[in-house]
Amino acid sequence: MKHLRGIPELGVDGIVRILNLADHMVEVNRRPVPKVPALVGRTVVSLFFEDSTRTRISFETAAKRLSADTMTFSVSTSSVNKGESLRDTIETVGAMGVAAFVVRHKTSGVPWQVSQWTDASVINAGDGWHQHPTQALLDCHTIRTELGRPAAVDCLAGLRIAIVGDVRHSRVARSDIQAFTALGARVVVVAPRTLLPPEVHTWPVEVTSDLDSVIADVDVLYMLRMQRERMNEALVPDLGEYSNRFGLDRARSARLRDECLVMHPGPMNRGVEMVVDPAELRRSVITRQVSNGVAVRMAVLFDVLGDSNPEVAS
Amino acid sequence: MNARAVNTLNIVGGRIVDSTTDANGRLADLHIVDGRIALIVETGEALPPADSVLDASNAVVSPGFVDLHTHLREPGREESETIETGSRAAALGGFTAVVAMPNTDPAQDSRAVVEFVREQGRRAGLCEVVPSGCITVGRAGEQLVSYAELMKSGVTLFTDDGNGVQDPLLMRRAFEYSSDLGITMAQHCEVSRLTTGAVMHEGSCCSHLGLPGWPAIAEELMVHRDIELVRITGGRLHVLHVSTARSVELIRAAKADGLPVTAEVTPHHFTLDDESLRSFDPVFKVNPPLRTMADIEALKAGLRDGTIDAIATDHAPHADHLKEQPLDAAPPGMLGLETAFALAVGELGMDLRSVLACLSWNPARIAGIDDRHGRPVAVGEPANLAVLDPGVTWTVDRNRLASKSRNTPYQGRSVTGRVRHTVLNGRAVVIDHVAQR
Asked: What ipTM score was computed for the predicted complex, to two decimals?
């Protein structure tokens, strides 16, 4: 695989390949010295046009554990707009000899544009409201390992997953829905109409605005972050009403099935979508998502840049 | 000896199609003297000798095209286009007149700027550049422009194109004040509160791509508002770049009510849909955005039944470095002048004469220049003509266009219909696809 820009172009076979590699990387990470020489001499540049310390550190940790050289190119969009085009930026950095760009941008499509202007591989670390494929992969990995299922094309079959919150503006939701359904899960999105994407009937999901009608009947409850600036766009009346209708509070968490996983891509808005302390939940896997993120990103970097033989990563 | 040089031109072998002929036209040869058609004879009959002769065999001789919607970028954004380069693109596209949109810097809201644009067009000498004027000062939507003053410089079409006039009171006053001046308000219909940050059509494609959507209703609300304002004020409305099926219905109903409303559609809106954005290439970002196949069918039906009067290019050049940006930062707009005829004749499925009506005499009337453009090809008429090969196929190459910019959405596309020669005021400004200046 040359690039990882989105879940659709990865396909179900690609997802399973990454999940298998991720198992291997989890094992590497358990070693006393969690480092292998798989990507020695390769340079991975984090090109972050939007602040995201967590995702950037996760990628850089993954790259270092594979012995790649890492560089960070943090760009505030304002400085880029002063005369230099996006293409100029890519060609300038690319000229330094880059094996892969890890790209985060507030605008959908930038990883596809970047890949037109460089020979390097492009890994999407989140573009606009569009895709966040490594998040979706680490979410799939987390669900199937927590449920003890092997990496396979139907490893989420039979599961019903609720994704709750601002689906319209969520790249996590778009990538997760594509990945979960590709692996056999059914997805129900729970949000007011204002936070659903246009033409949501063309998505492969059930839709409801009534969280209480589904909460006792799901295997995974995936809470999305509710951004405060949505208040200014008349998308919801106020955060209190949002929290009352769509927040996970004690009463709702008491109705969850015993084995239901609770997930969140972070950072959490405590008191908004996450009213209950996640530590009180029976099966919150939110911190597990973060630790799995490193292994999954190692798997992605290896798949994109490494020798096709996974034994090299031993 | 004559006191002055007489300029003569013969056009031989062609078939004339104009507003007075039937769809088949008639075979004839033309003799042009000092900018006017002096003699028309049967094909092959003797003509007086001329300084130059244009071969029109197997071709159609038509009144030159008139573009109601051209962004020439001068003054202010000469890195993307100048009046000279834009005029050259126009001439190569068969246009003998283009209406220059007023979103220049400074904007075309004063006689000084308007006269500058017209004069630069004259200097380029490739087509007539007809300046439009702003509806509001600086296109800021706050204060009416001195319409009667700009009329002294020949301006009859007023628009804030790029912006719709948001304030309903101001627009009512603009229609009222202009209602007895014989001028036209050309509206860019977009309720901007509904399109903040929008990059593409709001629909299932934008939903999957996670791009902010530009809903059809943002156009239709303003089309409806302005039609109703025309109904109570007696003003005259031209709807720029109609893009949605519902807008076509609203305009059709307004015309049925006898209101003075006209409309245009661009070639890109009837040939490309929102799926183009799946490439994330900003060359496909345009305002209003590319819509759906259902909208395309409605626009074509509107052209066929006369609801839409004109095909206009919305030629909007942008230098490469401006388009090589993320989709939200890249400016909207695409080139159009050099591909308009091919897309109109090749993709609409309309007879040639109906296409020429939409490219020539209808827009000439809307622009108020039908005393000299879009005229019948007849003795005594000004010789502003295009010689066309409707059946010739060619491939669009962004590097071979005359525009200073290269942002055509048709790169590499094979299209049918080509402009062979263009004649402006009796002089051949394009001969065999080559601009003569």
From this structure: 0.94
